Every structure is written in structure tokens, then in C-alpha cells.
Amino acid sequence: NKQVILKDYVKGFPKESDMLVTTSTIKLKIPDDCHHAILVKNLYFSCDPYMRNQMNKVQGNDPYSLVPGSPIAGHGVARVIDSSHPDIKKGDLVWGFTRWEEYSLIRDPDTLFKIQDTDVPLSYYTGILGMPGMTAYAGFYEVCSPKKGETVYVSAASGAVGQLVGQFAKLMGCYVVGSAGSKDKVELLKNKFGFDDGFNYKEEQDLNAALKRYFPDGIDIYFENVGGKMLDAVLLNMKTHGRIAVCGMISQYNLEQPEGVHNLFTLVTKRIRMEGFTVLDYYHLYQKFVDMVLPLIKEGKINYVEDIAEGLESAPSALVGLFYGRNVGKQVVLVSRE
Ligand code: NDP
């Protein structure tokens, strides 16, 4: 059973050498004392920014943190090859929390979702129809309180979550601008995802001035994916009664000392609501989300871009690439086609 294991806790930016591809043995049958378990063959791994936070050495007990020597844990798509669970049978396809190895014994499969619709590529269940898609949906519709005609700014806009947030905002009739880290990504925002405009934040000397250029009358909604200097500049450009949905702060995950944010007092003067959220609290809406998004995908009303690395061996480099912006769209690893 080929696996990708964490070699040691990570400090600073993750490196490929923090992980190791190795081989262990696994019986391709559920042990007799394992009730309600499933054995899966992993087909796709999802590379997600939160996986970096699992590699930190933490004080106390954190159920999500990894122990060196154990396989990387993350979301994926898998096929069930044996089951002692009453509702899941051999041959079923599932998405959810798995481990970076060819085969995984999953002792608590109740957190997994069964894949019902296979008319779309299975990899979509790591992204637009999986955790990041659900994040975009919950964050935009439940946290941002959007209204037609409002101005929306999305950072890390070409990524798994951002590309969908921008398209939801367009469907609602908002004016949408995104930022991303290369010229090609900005082209995608405008030409593939239908954003009204976009800019390469790496080419802007003054983020405050850049935002003033795109939002001369201010921002109603900021979908926050990066944090740090970007957040500080956004705070200076929010409209009165604006909303900031704090989804993530990827610019901070590899810093030993998080950057300070200086302009928080504008929350008071502009009566801004800034709210953090986690997708974990919104999975009860999953079916509603799929019922909305699946037809939009099939009718071509939502576009989706993914970046697929081939082979389990490519997984460490694909994951590290997120923190250098090497991924164009949702980063996925193809482990096995069947
Ligand atoms: P992406 O697919 O967008 O990949 C990460 C991207 O972040 C990179 O491609 C890069 O794009 C950008 N990035 C990396 N480093 C920096 C930096 N220092 N400054 C600015 N941008 C940077 O990831 P996701 O869409 O999966 O995740 C987006 C955000 O959503 C993350 O913050 C993540 O933690 C968060 N998240 C939160 C969830 C929740 O429940 N709250 C659930 C899922 C995700 P570029 O080239 O544009 O710089």
C-alpha cells in the first residue's frame, strides 16, 4: 500500500521533503472486529490549504493534527472495495475525509458522502461538488447576505473556492472583482468565470490604490481568502454596513508570527460585519447546494477549472504548490482511474 507520510512537523513554508512516499502492507479485507467500517481504494486526493495547519506541532490534543510517521490526511474521492457498514456497499463511490495512500480502512465512514451523480468527472467531488464548493456556497449565501447590484471583492479568486464565489456573485447580479497572483489567472477570472474585472495583486505597489481603482464607491462584500496586507487594504475600502466573510488567510499559514492588522477600527466607523465561518457547520445544506450547482454545471452556466497532478508520487509537490500559487484552479491529484 503506497502512502505519503508526514516526516516531521513543519515550520515555515512546507517542502516536498517534509513528506515521504513509502510502502506499507494492508489486508484488502475489513478485520472481523471492525463494525461499521469501510475499505476504500483512493481515486483522487484533494490538496487544500488547511492541510498545512495539520502539520504544525500543537500543544495538547487536536484531533485534526497529524503525527509524524502517519499518512497525510485530507479530502478525496474513493471507491468502496469492502464494507461492514449497513448503508455503504462494495462498489459505492464516496467523497470525504481519507488518507494519502492507495487503500484506506475508514473506521468512521459516517462523515463521508455517497456520490450519486457520475455524469460529471469524479474529481469534481474534491472541489466544486465537494468541500471547497460547499465552502463557497455557505460563505457567500449564508455569511455575506448578498443583494443584487452590490459590489463584491474576492481574493485568491481563481482558486477552488474563489472561482465559485465570483460566479455565485455574478448569478446574483453583483459587480465582482477578483485578485490572483498571475496574468493568466486574471485572464481566467475575466474570460472563463465572468468576473467584471480582476488584477494581479503581485504587480500592485499599493493595494489600497488598486482597490480604489476597481471600487471607487467602495466594497459591499469582501470574501476573504488571504488575510495580512490584503485585509488591511480592504478595510480602508469597505462601504458602510459592508460584510467581510472570513473564509481563510492563506498568506498567514506559513508565518511563525502572523502579521498585524492595523485598520480594524474601520469596523466601527463603517458599521462593518466581519464574520469567520467554517464549512463544517454547513454540511446540513449539502443536498440543497448540489441541487442548485449540479444543474448549473450541466447547463454550462458555471465554469470550473481544475489542475490535475498525476500519480500519488506527485501529491507532495502538488500540495506545496498551493503556497506558491503554482496551481491554476482547484489542485487535485489523480491516484487511480478505477
Ligand atoms: P486555492 O485553490 O485558492 O489555492 C491557494 C491559492 O492561494 C494559491 O493558488 C495562491 O493563488 C493563493 N496564495 C497562496 N499564498 C498566498 C499569499 N501569500 N498571498 C495571497 N495569495 C496566496 O485554495 P482554496 O480555494 O482551496 O482555499 C482558499 C481559502 O479558503 C484558503 O484560505 C483556505 O484556507 C480557505 N478555506 C476555508 C474553509 C472554511 O471552512 N472556512 C474551507 C476551505 C478553504 P495566487 O496565485 O492567486 O496567489
Q: Which ligands does the model contain, each kind named once?
A: NADPH dihydro-nicotinamide-adenine-dinucleotide phosphate
Secondary-structure-derived class: alpha/beta
Show unreliable segments. none
Number of domain modules: 2
Strand content: 25-35%
Query: What is the C-level CATH assignment of the largest domain?
Result: Alpha Beta
Q: How much helical structure, as a percent, in the residues?
A: 10-25%
Roughly what is the average pLDDT, rounded to an integer? 96
Number-wise, the strands total 15
CATH T-level fold name of the largest domain: Quinone Oxidoreductase, Chain A, domain 1
Taking all Cα atoms into account, the compactness measure Rg is: 20 Å
Give the count of helical stretches: 9
| Main sheet characteristics | 7 strands, mixed
**Architecture (CATH level 2) name of the largest domain:** Alpha-Beta Complex
According to CATH, the homologous superfamily of the largest domain is Medium-chain alcohol dehydrogenases, catalytic domain
Order of helices and strands: EEEHEEEEHEHEHEHEHEHEHEHE
> What does the overall shape look like?
globular
Distance between the termini: 16 Å
InterPro entries: ADH-like_C (IPR013149), ADH_N_2 (IPR041694), ER (IPR020843), GroES-like_sf (IPR011032), MDR_fam (IPR045010), NAD(P)-bd_dom_sf (IPR036291)
Keywords: Oxidoreductase
Domain Enoyl reductase (ER): 22-333
Protein name: 2-alkenal reductase (NADP(+)-dependent)
